[in-house]
Predict the 3D structure of the following.
Amino acid sequence: MDFFHVLVVLLESTIRVSVPLVFAALAGLFTERAGVFDIGLEGKMLGAAFAAGAAAAVTQSVWIGLIAAILISVLLSLVHGYASITQRGNQIVSGVAINFIVAGSTVILGEAWFRQGGRTPALAEGARFQIVNFPGADAIREVPILGPIYADLLSGHFLLTYLAFAMVPISWWILYRTRFGLRLRAVGENPGAVDTAGISVIWLRYRAVICCGILCGFAGAYLSLAMTAGFVKGMTAGKGYIALAALIFAKWRPKNVMLACLLFGFLDALAIRLQGTPLPLVGQVPVQLMQALPYILTVILLAGFIGKAIPPKAGGVPYVKER
Amino acid sequence: MSTPYAKLPGWVEYGLVPLINLAVAFIVAGLVVLLVGENPFEAAYHLINGAFGRGEYIGFTLYYATTFIFTGLAVAVAFHCGLFNIGGEGQAYVGGIGVALACLWLDQTMPWYVVFPIAIVGSAFFGALWAFLPGWLQAKRGSHIVITTIMFNFIASSLMVYLLTRVLKPLGSMAPQTRTFAEGGQLPKLDWLLSIFGLNIGTAPFNISFLLALVAAFAVWVLIWRTKLGYEMRTMGHSPSAARYAGIRESRITVIAMMISGGLAGMMALNPIMGEQFRMQLDFVQGAGFVGIAVALMGRSHPGGIIPAAILFGVLYQGGAEIAFEMPSISRDMIVIIQGLVILFAGALENMFRPAITRVFAMRGQRAAAVVQTKGA
């Protein structure tokens, strides 16, 4: 029973840490499927987290915080879009630039506006997301096996957590079952063909980039309005890059994205849990190895040793109409 | 694909366009300063004064510039080969192992001029090693260099935390760092160089690795524009298919270019470890690998542009510290913003002002032609 209890706790924290990864990786899925590479997920998430924390602290409203997060994140996405779609600049360079601009300006603006060392003020109850408890969760917690699964794993998360996991089938449906999704994927594989069909490549890519911004906004808002009560400087701590790794690990497919995010989230939760405790057979595993594992796995996957990750064909290439 | 823009005179291409991009980046940064409620001109004054006001300040500026020359060259070499090495940060970090091992091994018995060459080789070796795998994976297995080098940055960071907390740390010490090196592991300062100009270096850690950086810059110029290998790298960067038809072995060149790039990034570690702290600490790279991207973009991947660009970023780092001291609401994170803006305007949006500039020069050209015609008539 003790092992089962530990497992439930571990899985619960897995879900908690994988939510921003799911949002951000799905965000990346939309742009990359449309042929725009985006290593600026980290920056967008951080900017959104700051906007959410700041707006919620000022207005005491969690919803205004969420809207601010989405607005800022979409704005940053449009900068990336302008640079990489309209100006046909290098998409990697643009993403790197956005990460730096956001990393610096969240600290500078946060310090100027709130004077708390780059933090935003701690949010009160009404200004942050509350845990949603399913009906009867407390009543059946004592029931063996099913009780903890229902009460701790399924119930007791934030609204955004459920939204994140709902976004997985929704994204799948948008990308694979709607006209917009078909065109979006086509524009990432062969923009010339889409253009020949009389559909604007530019506008399609912009829409994909906006979708990415909205999802990154949710990821950021989750960090500063749900997971913690306020923004802390550099709070994304590489999550954007892990999400990118998860996206590649998932070979650009929605369901796999969720599984990869859960796997990386599980490794994260396990690393925290195992700190200092020796494992059977292998002895004590250094925490650093556990932390590096998502990256190592991604490298191995990219190298084609676990299946082959084939990116969208037109990814990273700006579309030039005139020949 | 043909270039969509008309060819501009050299001084416009390499002088005016980067300057305009840089100016826009600084104007936007000035707006951020305004937004914070401070005076951008005052900030600019503190920046310049903090970077050049005293001999000591100049020493610090050049100390930072040394670091950025190495990382800028590293990014530039890979750029020429069409590779985006975003992993300079990790390569420099791992390069530190080579420096630390050389110093820990020999510092108590040998003078610095024996330890230094070994440390150079060590740092370049470890840096190149860390770039070898991403290069090899790109060449042989087709994995995207940008993603692998990002991943390797994180792996390097975990690896170094492990090494510094478990392996390289002296027994009984709590701090995650190596022991302080004896005299053999300390590079001499370049105080004599600045005293030629009547400047007193003070406590600034401006050291002999600056000269090494200049040598490296010259060597990179020779490599890229005066050797067969450099020619092959540039060919690949311009057109991989042309390189293939010309019989250039792509995978070999990719791996070699990445290793040179990584080696240069690794040599950056000499400056802070042997030149300033005399020990290897956690996070001694402090983002210099990423600054290298901005430096390479600003300097148009040419050593002649990279050195001034590196000095510019040295000014930002040293002067930025002064701004942070004089104007507390502007912390050193301002540098990160400027760095990002420079990458954005000099890199991703480099063509934003080009159509307008091209039009201006086309008009001037027409007018000159018209003048010639009227004179002829």
